[in-house]
Amino acid sequence: MATELPPAPDGHCFHCLQPLPDDGGYDVIVAGQSRAVCCYGCQAVAQTINDQNLLHFYQFRDTSNPLQIPLLPEELQQLEAYDQDELQDQFTQTSDSGLKSTTLSVEGMTCAACAWLIEQQLQRQPGVQKAQVNATTERVLISWLPEQIKLSSLLQHIAGLGYRALPFQAATQEQDFKRRRRYFIRRIGIAGLATMQVMMIAIALYFGMVDELDQSMRQFFWWISLLFATPVLLYSAQPFYMSALRSLQARQLNMDVPVSLALLSAYGASAYATFTNHGEVYFESVSMFTFLLLVGRYLELLARQRAVATAANLVKLLPATAQREGPNGELEAVAVHKLQPGDIVRVLPGQTLPADGELVSEQAEINESMLTGESVPVSRQQNETVYAGTLNQTQPIRIAVQATQQNTVMAKIAAMQDQALANKPKLAVQAERLASQFVKQLLFLAAATFLVWSFIDPEEAFWVTLAVLVATCPCALALAAPTAVTGVIHQLNKQGILLRNTDAIEALRDCRTLIVDKTGTLTSGKFSFASQTYLSEGYSKAGINALASALEKHSEHPLAEPFKSLSSANEKAPERVLLDNVQVKMGAGIEAIWTAGTSQQPVRIGHPRYIAEWHPEAVTLAPANVILATADEVLACFQVTDTLRDDVPATLATLRTWNYEIIMLTGDSQANAERVAQQLQISNFKAQCLPEDKLAFVKAQQQHGPVFMVGDGINDGPVLAQADVSMTFGQAADLARQAADSVAMRNDFAAITTFIASTRKSRRILKQNISWALLYNIGIIPIAVLGLVTPYIAAIGMSLSSLLVLANSLRLYRSDSSATDSR
C-alpha cells in the first residue's frame, strides 16, 4: 500500500510548496502517486527522495511555513558535503587529465550479486570511467569526471539500490569492523541459544524420551520450539534474506537464494504442523542451519579483516596534526590535510612523518617498517626522499613537504591493495560463475525431487526436497575463491610485496622465462664513474663537466645521479650553463639548445645509439655508456657502473632449479652488460636496448610462452605492462609501479622467489577448495535425492564443508612459504 503523504496546497509545488507555473509544471511519482512540481530541480530531488526511501521528509514536515522548510532531507545534505573540494582532497586522487578516483566503503554488500548490481548501476552513469566492486572487502574503486557527474550523485545512486556508501576512511575501518562483528555476534548468540533449546526438545522427541506423554504435551513441545525458532528466522537469518533479495534484483542467483528458500519453507511447514497438530516439525534444522551459516560468515569476516588490515593500518598510523614552520621559524600546529607542497615541517624523535618530502636536515635514521616490513632503521641523507607513515628514530628533523594525503606513497600502497582485492583471478571468476550456475541447477533439482517424491511418498516429499536444498547449497564453492585470494594478498603484504593484479596468480603457473632489466634491478642502482674520456680540444674539462651536469639534472634516471655533482666535485666555481628547450627522451637521453658565449647549438647526452643519430661512430666508442656531444662533435665519453645486489646470485640459482630461463635486457653498453652477465652466468642477454627494443623482444618471447618481467625504470613501463606477469620495486619510478603486477616494497631481488612460491601455494589451495566443494556438492546430491539425509544432518554437512574450505584458506595466513617450493 502506498505511503500516505500530506498534500501540497492547491496550485503549489509538492516539493518546495511554491506556486506552480501557469502551465502546471511537471509530474513526479512519489509514494506511488503522481505529484505536481514546479521545475526540473524539484522533480529530480523528489525522485531521489522517493528512490532512497526518505519519505519521512514529506511525512513529518510542517507545511504552515514553506519558507522554513529545507529543500533537502538531512541525509542528502550530508552526501552533498562530499562534493566540496577541500573535503574531497582528503580521500580522492586527481589525475593530470582531471579524472578523480576514490575508494568507497559500502554497507550491506554480501556477495558477488551485490557487487554486480552496484557495478552495473555505476557504469551506466555519465562521466563514470571505471567502477570495480569487491564484495569481499565491501569496497568500490571508482573513477569519474567531476564536470559530468558529482560524487554525491554517485553515492545517491548506490543508496537507491539499498546500500549505504561513503568514502573509505582507513582510520574508521577498525570501528566499522567492530560494528559488523557485533552485527554477527548478536545474531549468532540468539541463534545459538535457540538451537540449544530446540535441539534438547528435538532429541527428546526423536529418541522417544517423551513417548509416555500424551499428544497435547507433544504439541506443547512443538509450541516451545516454535517460540525459540521464530526470533532465529525473523532476526538471525536477516542477512540471508537481504542478500537473496539483492541477488534476485541483480538477476544473478547466489547461494543465499536456496538458503532463504530452505529456511522459510522449513519454518512455514513446521509452523503449519504445530498449528494443525499434524505432520513433522524441523525447528531444530531452521535454528541449526542459521547458526552454522552465521558462524561461517563470521569466520569469513575475520579472515577478510586480516587480509585488508595491513594496508589500512598504514594510513591509520598517519598523524592528524603536524608542526609547520612559519616564515620566522616559529612552529604552529596544523591539520595534516592543510599542509601544502613546499611547507617545512619539524618531526621529533619517536614521531611519525606526516607527509612525503625531502629531508632538509643533514641526516636522519628512519624506521620504514610500515612500508617495507623491514624493522632495521635506514639512514637518510640531506635531499633524499622520506615518506609519510615512517618513524623518525633519533633526532629532530626538518622536512620539505612534497606530497600529502592521497598523493603519498603510503596512500598509493593502500590504493594498490584495494585494486588487487577488487580484481579477481580468472579461476576465481570461474568459481563464482560455477556457483551461480550451480544454484540454478539446484533449484531445478529441488523442484524435480519434490515432483518425484510426491508420487513415491507425498508425506516425505517436502522434507526430502528441503534436505536437497540445504545439503547441496554451494556455500563452500562460493567461499573457495575469495578466501584464498584474500589469504595470499595478506601473506604477500606481510612479506613486503603488494599484489596489484591477481591474474598474476594464475599467469605464473606456466611462466618459465624470466626477463630482467640490469640497472637498478640486478644492480644496486648506485652509480659512480669508472672512466671519463674527454675528446674535444675546443672546450675545457670543467666546461664539459658543467654542461653534462646541467643536462643530467633534468633526468630522473639512476645513471644521471653521479653527473649531478660532477661539476661541483671538480671545480671550485662551476661554470654557469644556459640551456633552452630541454627535452628528455625516455630511454635515450636529453637534448637541449646550449648557449655558449654568443653562439647557440644543439647538444645531447645519453645512450650511444642516441648520439649515433648525429655521429655514427659513437656506438664504437668503448668503454662508454653515456656520451656527450654537440651536433658538430663528440665532447666526452663516460663509463658509469654500479654494483650487483647481494641477493641476486642466490635468487637466480633458485630460479634455475625451478627451470626458469634467465634473460637480461639493458640499455647499458655492451661492455657493462657482458661484465654483469659473466658475473651472474647469464648466457642470454641483449645490450644497448631502447624501450622499443625491449618491448619488441618481450613480444617475440611471448610467441613461445608466457613471460615474467622484472624492471624498475621509466623506460621499463611499457615492457612491464606487456609481460604476462611483472614485478618492480618500491623505489622504482612511478610509471614502473603503475605498470607492474606486483611491487616489492623492501627492494629485495629475492622477493621474486617469495612471490612465485606464495602464488603457487595459493593456487594449490584455491584448486583444493574448488575441488573439495565440487566433490561434496556432487557427492551429496544422490544421497539427498534418495531421502537418506534429514534436514538437520544436511545442515551439519553443508556447514562442515564450508568450514573446511575456510580452514584450508587460513593456511595462507601463515608465513611459511619458502623459496624451496619448486612445484
Automatic annotation (TrEMBL):
Chief localization: membrane
Residue ranges of domain HMA in the record: 100-166
Membrane topology field: Multi-pass membrane protein
CDD domains, per the entry: HMA, P-type_ATPase_HM
One Pfam family named in its UniProt record: HMA
Transmembrane feature ranges: 188-208, 220-237, 257-275, 281-299, 438-456, 462-489, 770-789
Gene3D superfamilies per the UniProt record, alphabetical: 3.30.70.100, Calcium-transporting ATPase, cytoplasmic domain N, Calcium-transporting ATPase, cytoplasmic transduction domain A, HAD superfamily/HAD-like
PROSITE patterns recorded: ATPASE_E1_E2, HMA_2
GO cellular component: plasma membrane
Gene Ontology molecular function: ATP binding; ATP hydrolysis activity; copper ion binding; P-type divalent copper transporter activity
Record keywords, A-Z: ATP-binding, Cell membrane, Ion transport, Magnesium, Membrane, Metal-binding, Nucleotide-binding, Phosphoprotein, Translocase, Transmembrane, Transmembrane helix, Transport
Subcellular location(s) per record: Cell membrane
InterPro entries reported for this sequence: ATPase-cat-bd, ATPase_P-typ_cyto_dom_N, ATPase_P-typ_P_site, ATPase_P-typ_TM_dom_sf, ATPase_P-typ_transduc_dom_A_sf, ATPase_P-type_domA, HAD-like_sf, HAD_sf
Any GO BP annotation: copper ion homeostasis
Sequence similarity: Belongs to the cation transport ATPase (P-type) (TC 3.A.3) family. Type IB subfamily.
Record-given protein name: Heavy metal translocating P-type ATPase
